[in-house]
Amino acid sequence: MPVVAEIVRSGFVEGHHYGSLVALAAAGSVDWSVGDVTSPVLPRSSNKPIQALAMVELGLDLPDDLLALACASHSGESFHVDGVRRTLASAGLDESALHTPVDYPLDDGARDQLIRAGGARSRILMNCSGKHAAMLATCVLRGWDTATYLHPDHPLQVAILETFARVTGEPVDTVAVDGCGAPLLSTSLTGLARAFAALATATEGPEHRIAEAIRRHPQNVSGTTRDELALHRAIPGLIGKAGAESVYAVALPDGRAWALKTDDGAHRVRPVLMAEALRRSGVLDEPGVDADAVRSTGRLELLGGGVPVGEIRAVF
User: Fold this and answer.
1) Residue 29, C-beta contacts closer than 8 angstroms, at least 6 positions apart
2) What domains can be seen in the chain, in order of their start residue?
3) Closest C-alpha to 144, from 153, 178, 50
4) Whole-model pTM above 0.90?
5) pLDDT digits over 139-156, tens only?
6) What residues does 111 pair with on adjacent strands?
7) What's the rounded Cα separation, in Å, for the pair 202 and 129?
């Protein structure tokens, strides 16, 4: 993979990040790309809006805030946890039905507050619990077994795979296991961008429901302190979702879409690359876009003695 970012300290390039990016034009063709954007990758949590789409197609009908939470890698803030409980309660379930690993909140502040209060790791605090709660609610709706909802051959997961292949426009090459225990479906970065474009351009139907839920409640998809939320607020109509291993996909209502991944999976460089990708595509010059806010999401300073002495900068 080519170098996509440099780690610069005191003017000295001390390291690099390698990766791939793709930008789709509004018509769906590749506008520009860097690296390998056609081989399968594991998009991790960037798949969540597509998984949620499949659940809506199966009949899941949640309020927009809870549907956004179904797409989330949430921070574990109180409103996230309350929302997961609401989703479960709507299906007559509680958090004992969740098969997520026990975990602390993803947000440092929420984690520290929990520990100070004497709290412990739990399944509902795990950042994927919104998706799992929606999966369970879908199973109850369809009359499917809830104890085996994570098995790849469960009818829920079979339906998700079919939807995923359709909207990415590619067959699923690999079914792995994600960090939360759910099946993890592969696609290329081009396929991932294509799927996000399908959501962002929809004006009706399940795709439109997912996109509007994300647009109306972006804080539910991530958290109140996250760079993803800042990007949603800076660009009108944008929908986006980050994933582990430095994956990121975003799309605009006109059909333009971007997807990226670094080879080393470094979380820190992900927003740096997306901000530069959007700048390269001219998005920062468009009406209504808060260009300074977009640039801020992509600014990562390196400290020395507690003061900035360098940065991680995109170089594609």
Assistant:
1) none
2) 3-65+147-314 (3.40.710)
3) 153
4) yes
5) 999 999 999 999 999 999
6) none
7) 27
